[in-house]
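Data card: per-record layout.
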Amino acid sequence: MRRRPMHMSDEALDALGPALVELRAELKIPPAFPKRVLKAADKAVAETQLHHKDATHLPFFTIDPPTSKDLDQAMHLERRPGGGFRVYYAIADVATYVRSGSPLDVEARDRVETLYFPDLKVPLHPPVLSEDAVSLLPDKPRPALLWQHDLDADGNVTASTVSRAMVCSRAKLSYEAVQQAIDDGTAEECLTLLREIGTLRETVEIKRGGISVNLPDQEVTFQDGSFRLNYVAMLPVEGWNEQISLMTGMAAAQIMIDSGTGILRTQKKHTDQVVGRLHEIAKCLGIDWDPGVPYATLVRELDPTKREHMAFLTEATTNMPRAEYAIFRDHQTPEHTKHATIGAPYTHCTAPLRRLVDRYTGELCVAACADKPPPKWVLDALHCLPCDLARGKGGLADRQTVDLAEAVVLMNREGEVFDAAVIDTDAERNDPLTGRVYLADPAVLAKITSTDGQKLRLGASVRARLERADLSSDDDKVLFTLP
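The structure for this 483-residue chain is written out next.
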């Protein structure tokens, strides 16, 4: 179920563009950088002195979508002479250019994160930084926070450290091209090593109880003058690449815990009550879940292309506890340090061009690995950082963009009946007459209501009648009924 494009009519195209402009206005998304911030960015590029150690001899590469210019991460992988592997993972060094208290810093703390809309990107930092001076572009020496992870032959991390270094990527690769090269046997050793290490790390993840749910994402894109609404499933190489990032986030979390000051991304486990409910849901859907099989093991075995499995996975992910940031200092480590989905302590640290928090976690780890105290500017910011991070609008913008696209793609089709599958119900909330349905074509997930008193059955195939597709609705913009 990889990239199933839904081409919109000219009428839909005309409707979605203005709706996105209105959405950005409602969310108070800044349309452009103030002149003082752009001037500060130019000055930072012109005047910043770089004193990083030289690691440009290492042949790094990046893997990103083809059109990406804000490249946060580059990697170099090799085998260790005595067995096992060494992973060099370079992260864009934003803090070298964005100094605390500067106009760049103030603006970044206001924006919190890069926002991606189908028709434009709203970056965290000015493009002269995010798409040039700090971005790990090919054949351009760039300052980085260079992680070194040593792994044994089974993929377990035996040592991790990070320091500043100049690096130089040799190639900008795309996920599709890398996957094709691996599949047809033409991939270079660095890419086959990514598959080998990534696969080993997936096994390590299973052993520690990490949870990987491969639900396809809804994606709205703008290409060749047309908006498209797709389901996009993750390629294997994206999973292997993600394992390198997760490994770094876990190493960073442990370094900060050991040093006594840090910013963790935490998440609690499912409660026993929720797990019990999930067992009941699995039973209703005909999914064989032995009581002795961990939840993390079960979800890996499910196939989201099957409606019963997708219904279960949707219910399971909907009921996962919310992830939060936990900030601590002076060895006052929080009682709960783990991220339940990952199965270990974890932090965000690998995307500083796109997330505000990563600049702070990176600095804390560099200081700890150099056996130095945390930078004063980081300590001074810790007390207000939670409020800054809470202003992030990425998740809300993504959800509302998809809602608009769904309404547009179904515009003027009220009364039509579609094949659908029930993937969520409100039965546990004492309302078995409402829920959500999945449409394969068009790529829509929307609310459904039973109008004749017939209870919705999770995982059931239904014929859903479109009652509403309204861009201006304050409630659900798309609504189906069960005729």
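Known properties of this structure: The longest strand covers residues 157-167. DSSP finds 14 helices and 20 strands in the chain.

See the next section for split statistics.
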